[in-house]
Design goal:
Layout: H1 3-23, E1 29-31, E2 37-39, E3 46-48, E4 56-58, E5 63-69, E6 73-80, E7 84-91, E8 97-103, E9 110-116, E10 123-126, E11 134-141, E12 149-156, H2 159-164
Antiparallel strand pairs: 1-2, 3-4, 5-12, 6-11, 7-10, 7-12, 8-9, 8-11
Length: about 170
């Protein structure tokens, strides 16, 4: 290939990348513990299938976890921007399910916790204050009983929007 053709290809590549950056600026990036990176600048939910996550959806502010609960313990690390958190748990098992959200790791500062009795509806829990941006560990447990149900975690900077979401 001649030098002229290589230069033309490089210039065209530069133009295409510039156009992409102009029309799709960098937004907030959410990084999950398994190195899944989701660009939350998109206006619709994107689904990621990974080995350690079942399905994780992320919009700029919205759902960041949507997982089935099974086994006796569920744990997931998330990295979030400064925001409120809503934890919704549907408990289809016969035993109570407990959960905690801790800063940095499972033994870090607890920012939210609760107990969910067996029921047919989601029970929702909210942080009273915005959490600082950073890493948080979500732990769900049923003791020795097998869990059945669903866990959803939403984030938003506006508590009213968070409470309005289903």
């Amino acid at each position: 290939m001649s030098k002229k053709k290589i230069i033309i290809i490089i210039i065209l590549l530069f133009i295409v990348l510039t156009i992409i950056l102009i029309y799709r600026p960098f937004g907030q990036i959410i990084i999950f513990s398994n190195n899944t990176v989701v660009d939350s600048n998109s206006s619709s939910a994107a689904e990621e299938n990974t080995d350690s996550n079942k399905i994780t959806s992320q919009t700029k502010y919205g759902m960041i976890i949507n997982d089935s609960l099974d086994n006796t313990t569920f744990q997931k690390e998330i990295t979030i921007p400064k925001s409120y958190i809503k934890v919704s748990i549907k408990n289809d098992s016969s035993q109570n399910i407990t959960f905690t959200v801790n800063k940095n790791h499972s033994s870090g500062q607890q920012v939210l916790s609760g107990t969910v009795k067996p029921t047919s509806d989601y029970q929702k829990f909210y942080t009273s204050d915005k959490l600082a941006s950073g890493t948080y560990m979500i732990t769900v447990s049923s003791g020795s009983a097998e869990m059945k149900g669903q866990l959803k975690v939403h984030i938003d900077t506006d508590m009213n929007k968070l409470q309005a979401e289903s």
